[in-house]
Every structure is written in structure tokens, then in C-alpha cells.
Amino acid sequence: MDLQISVIHQIVELHFSDWIPQSSGVIELWVQEREYEEGDYYLTSRRHRKTSRSGSSPTLLPNTKGVKFDWLDFDTYDNPFISPNGKGGGEGHSIKAAFIISPPVLDALPLAQRFIDRVIEKGVRRIIFLGGSIQHCGDGPVLSQISEYIKGKGSDFNRLDEPNDSNLNAVKWTILRPSWFMENFSEMHHLYTIRDDNQIVSATGTGKIPFVSAEDIAIVAYKALIGKKTNGIERELVGMELLLRGDQLWSYDDIASTLTRILGRKITHVNMEEKDIVRGMVDEGVEEDLANVLVELDIAVKKGEEAQLGGDLELIIGRRGKGLIEYLEECARSGIWDTKGDVERGNTKFSE
User: Fold this and answer.
1) Which parts of the chain span the membrane according to its record (predicted)?
2) What homologous superfamily does CATH list for 3-181+212-244?
3) Which of 19, 56, 270, 317 has CA 20 to 30 A from 34's CA?
């Protein structure tokens, strides 16, 4: 996942705002669009680094304003709380909820801890964290460590309804644990190999995955951010770890076959060795140690560890999640996989 831009969402009438710091270009923009549809206002924070392969920054919605934020620059951690006149605190942006995605570095826990502590000091009382479906390998262990750190800031929500039982300053938390994104094929690395080489490259073998759309994940994140009770789930999704999976299992061979039918040209799944996948990530600028960790997720899929259905998605959003065929057909109609030269790298709807 790309971890390069972030959003603060402010419900002006309530002087209550939700912040999505340093989030995935995919998830963040879907959350931003959902909040925009509800008529809310946002402050968006950007890293100073280039945010796409083309070197351009993602397009903001009309009611957004940017501030600088960088995980590696501690001096930027207070920027979202500073009002346009340079003042912070209650006179500035009163941020009560944050949607956090792990820092894009191998040793993410210390940065995450420092940042979480800071936003709590600034008054954040609801944290939604984007973890992962696999917890024992890849980036799963560090995501689990960050999740446990956030939980440690919370109170006993099993007894929250009892009088005088909760700490009013404690953090309400929700952990999202999605499976793999459908957007990997249209807004991430697979976009270019499908479009330019007619290939999907992985080390997953014939392993299957319950792909889930970023749009559906964003609906869950939005409900958690605003504290909305949903479909019989009490406590506003508070104190819950939510497994977010699609309702069908797909191998990359299956997807290549489906794309062949949809696009009218042969698409092939190329099953590579793990070391070759690592080399490719390093060539794209990923640290080698981090690339070695991330390839473990492909290996887990190859072993069948992602081949599971069920979870919490349908109950929360009140319908079936978006199907992968539906998503692939939508993408094909948009022309993003048109043959080489038709689309410039990086000029997709959502940036990498």
C-alpha cells in the first residue's frame, strides 16, 4: 500500500473533526469522497515528497486545504492542530478522531507510538487503525503491535454503559483488518504490468484471496470515525477488531483469465520466485529489508492462509461487498488498462 497523503475532516457544526494522517492514497480518497458527499469540511495534510510516479500531487476536493505532515519529521506532528491564524488548541482545529495507517518504514512501531501519544495529548479520543488480515508474517506483526498499543490507550468498553465505569479521557478504538485490495490491479503495481506487459506478477502460486474494495473499507472507516451505530452493532464499532473480506476467493490465475475475457487480449499470471519479487520492489524504491518482509505475504497466500471467507463487512455496510468482476469491468470501461502509450504512468484517478 502507498502511504503518502492524509486528510482531516471537520464537522463544523459540532466543532468535531476526524483526521486521517499519512493514509493510503486508495483508502483515504474513498473516505474523503464519502465525507464530501455528506457535506463535511476537510483539512488535508501532505508530505513534502512527490506523491506519485508522475511527480504530481493527488487532486483535492474543492473544500479541502493542505498542511504539511511527514512521519519522519516530528516537527510536523502538530501541524494539523494549528489554525489558519497560526494558533493551536481549541481556537484551532479541534480534532477528536483519527484514522491512522502504519508509517511506511520497517521499524514502524516507535514512530506510531510517538505519534499516537501526541494526538492523544492534543485531544484525540477516537482512533481507527488500518491493520491487516494476516498477523503472523509480513507487516502483520508490526501492525499487531501498533494495534495492541492503541488498545492499551482504551477503556473497558464491554462495560461502557454502566455508570462511572469509563474514563472520559480514554481512547475509543476500532481496528480494521482488511484482506487484499481490489485496487492493487488498478491503482497500484499490477496496473502497469497489466497495461504494459499483459501480465500479473506475484509469488502467490495458486493461492486464493478474498479481495475487498477500498470503497467498502472506507465505508466502514467512515462509520467508525463519526461514531455511527450500524445494523444492530452497538457501541458505534468501538472496541472492535473488524475482519473485512470479500465474499469470493480468487487466485491470480483466475483473475488473469477474467481479464483476458474482459479486455479481449491474453493476460497471464507470472508466478515468480520470492527473490525476484523482492528485486522488483527494490527497483521501485522499497527498502530491501522491508521488501523481504512484504514478500512474506505472497508466501502466506501461496500456503493458503488467506483462503478464508466471512468476517464483518456485510453486516456493517448493510449489503454484499463489491464483487471483483464488477470492479474489473468498471476499470476496463475507464480505459486504465488500455495498451502501452494510451495512459501516462501516474495519471490514474488515485495516485500511487
Assistant:
1) none
2) NAD(P)-binding Rossmann-like Domain (3.40.50.720)
3) 56
SS3 content of the chain, % helix, strand, coil (to 5): 40, 20, 40
Q: What is the pLDDT along the chain (352 residues), one digit of tens a residue?
A: 322 223 333 222 222 334 444 334 444 444 545 454 554 445 555 443 333 333 334 455 555 556 678 888 999 888 888 865 555 444 556 778 888 888 888 889 999 999 999 989 988 888 999 999 988 888 889 999 999 999 988 754 444 444 444 566 678 899 999 999 999 999 878 999 999 999 999 999 999 999 999 989 988 988 888 876 666 565 678 889 999 999 999 999 999 999 999 999 999 999 999 999 999 889 888 889 988 988 999 999 999 999 999 999 999 999 999 999 999 999 999 999 998 544 444 433 333 3
Domain borders along the chain are: 3-181+212-244, 185-207+247-308+322-334
